[in-house]
DNA sequence: ATCGCACTTGAACGTTGTTCATGACCATGC
DNA sequence: GCATGGTCATGAACAACGTTCAAGTGCGAT
């Protein structure tokens, strides 16, 4: 096995074990020594595969994004009218809630993690995010056909942010700690309200 | 000076210095040794005034909530009609954005901080939050007079959560990193859309 | 078989938050 | 004024963290 192959294998093992640890204990559950032991390597070996633990977290987070994309299923087909567009937006919002509930700590890691050096996320990470935002842009374009693409992209991100806020604070055991069914209803009410309100510009 | 008075004085000094440190460096900027030096006491003294550093953070966060309440000005008077209610909701959302921009790290600490033991926030903290949510419930009740109080309270919290999401992800330098003026417009668009969409149940 | 180099190793380093034996200090009683 | 008792602040010490790097191991080439 070449050195490159070994490094790749180590990377895979590390990410898989890190994923398990984060799923079990959140971001604080990822500890260098424990990770090394789980992956069957020395602590120092982690730093041959990743620049630091934040790099490991980033890799895990990418897998989480992929998992979410898979959970969304294939992209929606043609959306007939504004009513169907609103339905699709509600469906996406509730799918987001379902995913957050199914993988609470992994999902939490997506947003709680901050790169230490204040740098922006790497391109491959941003690209994955963009693919997910496209899911929102599609029904939004049906709802507001006259919107320029830049404005549609922007509005889609704000729609996501709003839904994210409802889910994040709603599920947070230290903030609202709402039952899932209640959050589900709130998403339905507010996303539908936004869709209805956006329809007439 | 009695022991209680001294402890209170120490508490005040610690909170003031901790506030400065968090404002300068966020939650990671609050370090026990540095705080003790700034407050002119020994590290151990911190633990005579607070159970741990999280207690200090909680006290700072309460001050931040008070600061935000002050920034909102006195509660709105009677709200004439649904149009005025929508205006007020937009105003509150944009005031929230302004505050987050004016005190980014202190505001960040409000949401990034997690109590370690998984316990809920203390009552005095929840009470202060409730006073702020009441600001949203007021115009919302004008918009939807038929709503039961529990539903109004719930919807107000979700409205806040949505706006919080737009502000938090919009300002986050590692996520959207949008210019403030853009976020301001997005709040206007979406809050107005929600208000319009909510008007007809 | 021997040599040389690259890569893995894990003890060590610097920083955390938190604790607790120590000693200083002050109020009280004689 | 002095001895005494108890209370409280002190900061060195501890455990746990991420990260590093001198040292050693092992593999491939000669």
TrEMBL record, chains A, B:
Pfam families per record: TetR_C_33, TetR_N
Protein's UniProt name: HTH tetR-type domain-containing protein
Ranges for domain HTH tetR-type: 8-68
PANTHER family listed in its UniProt record: HTH-TYPE TRANSCRIPTIONAL REGULATOR BETI, HTH-TYPE TRANSCRIPTIONAL REGULATOR RUTR
Top-level lineage group: Bacteria
DNA-binding region in chain numbering: 31-50
Species, as recorded: Methylobacterium dankookense
InterPro entries: Homeodomain-like_sf, HTH-type_TetR-like_transc_reg, HTH_TetR, MT1864/Rv1816-like_C, Tet_transcr_reg_TetR-rel_C_sf
GO MF annotations, alphabetized: DNA-binding transcription factor activity; transcription cis-regulatory region binding
Keywords: DNA-binding, Transcription, Transcription regulation
């Amino acid at each position: 096995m070449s050195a490159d192959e070994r490094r790749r294998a180590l990377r895979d093992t590390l990410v898989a074990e890190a994923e398990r640890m984060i799923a079990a204990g959140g971001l604080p559950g990822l500890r260098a020594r424990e990770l090394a032991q789980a992956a069957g390597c020395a602590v120092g070996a982690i730093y041959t595969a990743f620049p630091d633990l934040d790099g490991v977290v980033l890799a895990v987070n990418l897998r989480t994004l992929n998992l979410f994309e898979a959970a969304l299923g294939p992209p929606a087909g043609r959306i007939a009218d504004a009513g169907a567009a609103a339905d699709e937006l509600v469906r996406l919002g509730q799918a987001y809630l379902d995913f957050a509930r199914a993988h609470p700590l992994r999902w939490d890691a997506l947003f709680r993690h901050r790169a230490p050096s204040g740098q922006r996320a790497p391109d491959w990470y941003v690209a994955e995010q963009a693919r997910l935002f496209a899911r929102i842009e599609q029904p939004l374009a049906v709802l507001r056909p006259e919107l320029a693409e830049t404005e549609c992209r922007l509005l889609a991100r704000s729609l996501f942010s709003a839904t994210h806020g409802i889910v994040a604070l709603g599920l947070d055991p230290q903030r609202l700690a709402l039952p899932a069914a209640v959050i589900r209803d709130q998403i339905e009410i507010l996303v539908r309200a936004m869709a209805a309100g956006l329809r007439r510009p």
